[in-house]
Amino acid sequence: MQEESYDVEVYTLTDEDGKEGEFELIGSLDIDGQSYVALLPLEKENSEEQDEEDYGFVILKVVEENGEEVFVSIDDDEEFEKVADAFEDELVADIDYDEESDDDEDEDED
After folding, report:
1. Torsion sign over Cα 72, 37, 42, 9
2. Residues 6 or more apart in contact with residue 26 via CB below 8 angstroms
3. Domain boundaries in the chain?
4. Kindly report the CA angle at 87 between 91 and 41, in degrees rounded to 5?
5. Looking at the DSSP assignment, which residues form a beta bridge with residue 72?
6. Which residue has the higher pLDDT, 109 or 71?
7. Measured between alpha carbons, how far is 29 from 87 in angstroms, rounded to an integer?
8. Nearest to 55 by CA among 69, 71, 74
9. Is the pTM of this model over 0.70?
10. Predicted pLDDT of residue 30
11. Is-contact 64 41, C-beta < 8 A?
């Protein structure tokens, strides 16, 4: 069996409290001329402080500051919901359901 190699982009981000965390890039989208990224925390916090709608991933806006790309929070609720819905649609569309159903058919033929 051949092992597949995946290039994973990992970012170390610092929150408002100065706490660092590592996040894996799981997707990026351009919506209305603005870039956004979806990041999956590599370590789950055992914190009870979670948003009511926990998408399982973090969505940030990409802006340019001093010639560098910087990830910032999305403050506008309407903008956030629009982007979150787009990412959910995109990430679900990337799941290859045919591969799973092909495996099921192979098992049925035995």
Report:
1. negative
2. 38, 39, 40, 57, 91
3. 10-46+54-109
4. 80
5. 61
6. 71
7. 8
8. 74
9. no
10. 95
11. no
